[in-house]
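hey so i finally got around to running the thing on that chain from the lab meeting. sorry it took forever, my laptop kept dying and i had to restart like 3 times. anyway pasting the input first so we r on the same page abt which one it is
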Amino acid sequence: MTRLILLDADRANGSTAPKPRFPDEMIASLRAGGAVIFPTDTLYGLGVDPCSESGLNRLFAAKGRDRGKPIPLLLSEGGQVGRWTRHVPPAAARLMDRFWPGALTLVLPADPGVHPSVTGGGDTVGLRVPDHPVPRALAALLSGAVTGTSANRSGNPGAWRSAEEIVQEFTGTVDWVLWGGALPHHELRAVGAPPTGNAQGAVRASRSRGTPAVGRTGGKPPSGNARREAVGNSPGSTVVRMTDDQPVLLREGVLPFHDIIEFLQRG
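ok and heres what got predicted. didnt touch it at all, straight out
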């Protein structure tokens, strides 16, 4: 059975909103492997406890997701980073200080104890502190983190306009839906759809020039909207790999990659 909780949208949105309170029954079910859909500062998320084997199994079943794909985590606060990573490069720490809470997911070297379903079998983990009290409160009541993959299935952009739409899509596959109102978006392509054209390579900050360069464009940085099109602009968070001090853009979302590069170049 899927249960719906209507949040007060005016009180549930924004970093200054009061800390939300959830039914004890809901938190107990999540700790026991349950699944919840919740609002964030970008898209609605599909959440389970990332330390729960049964919870992660529920997530894959609900989303129809390939187990080889990593699952991003939303943290209760920046102090939780050390639990999930084995190393934080200095440039990544600067980005956390500047853009967290906010729409920046940093892909960092994973701690060996992170569940392989979260890392997708790799050696990195995506972390973010969202600018929204609901996922931060959920994370604090679980293991300091909650999974933050978008609440959509393949081909559905996840631009939910009503609680009824989410319940109809996920009834019986998630236990709880926390509805905080429709999230403001522009026209959305399908989340996870691959970029088009010949610029599917990740955007990387050039060591020699200190400017973004696209993998298949001969090292010339695209200008204007071209940089977004190169990686498939998303309504979700911007995802940047930071296994060292050189940022690699994996997906550009609502936070422009140009802003990240400019900040790092200022030293």
